[in-house]
Design goal:
The chain has 206 residues and is an all-alpha fold. It has one domain. The protein has 8 helices and no strands. It is globular, with a radius of gyration of 18 Å. The termini are close together.
Length: 206
């Protein structure tokens, strides 16, 4: 059963960008993020997590396996989060406002370059929470899993930027992923929740 809701019809895609916080330059700035910032912030974090995993006794092969597991887990988390959080079933004006703020604005202005990745004011606390969760559950080996999870997130943000702004690619796989995501935007927002991969959409028939 598809419990997610479509983005309302009045949020039809438009060109350009939207000023969301007209009365606060600070909030407006914090709501925007360049994709390069994700690389600058998270690549060192991923490298540090791999290092911590290795120096605390996890072998290279095990660390690589944990890293891969974290990447795979990210793809599921990405699907779940996009489907049930970014497209939650808003029923009140306040909920619709929240939905618009966290994701609807992207559907209305899908090519706004500064609103294609999650602001670090949101992603950093979430990353810290997941890092603590993985290490609490898995011990020091959780750092390797967290590194893969973080790499999955970085890959997701880079792919999301690319599918909106790279028009001509020789990669058949990239073109297929791009068509999948564009169908989510312009055909049916209740389908196609995977961004970096369409695997879970096939599993859950969305």
């Amino acid at each position: 059963m598809n419990r997610s809701s479509a983005i309302p019809e009045h949020l039809a895609p438009q060109q350009g960008e939207l000023i969301m916080f007209e009365n606060s330059a600070l909030l407006e700035r914090l709501s925007r993020m360049r994709y390069t910032t994700v690389l600058i912030v998270y690549l060192p974090v991923i490298a540090l997590a791999v290092y911590l995993c290795l120096i605390r006794g996890t072998g290279i092969a095990a660390t690589a396996g944990l890293f891969l597991g974290g990447v795979v887990f990210w793809t599921f988390f990405e699907y779940f989060f996009h489907r049930f959080v970014f497209h939650f079933n808003a029923t009140t004006p306040f909920q619709h406002k929240i939905l618009f703020t966290i994701h609807g604005v992207h559907h209305q202005y899908p090519n706004d370059k500064d609103r294609l990745v999650m602001p670090i004011t949101v992603s950093i606390p979430l990353a810290a929470l997941f890092g603590l969760l993985f290490v609490s559950v898995m011990g020091d080996s959780g750092w390797g899993f967290f590194a893969g999870f973080g790499a999955g997130y970085v890959g997701y943000d880079m792919m999301h930027y690319a599918v909106h702004h790279v028009q001509n690619s020789k990669s058949a796989l990239f073109r297929k992923i791009r068509r999948h995501h564009m169908a989510h935007h312009f055909r049916d927002t209740r389908q196609g929740f995977g961004v970096s991969s369409y695997f879970w959409d096939r599993v859950f028939k969305t």
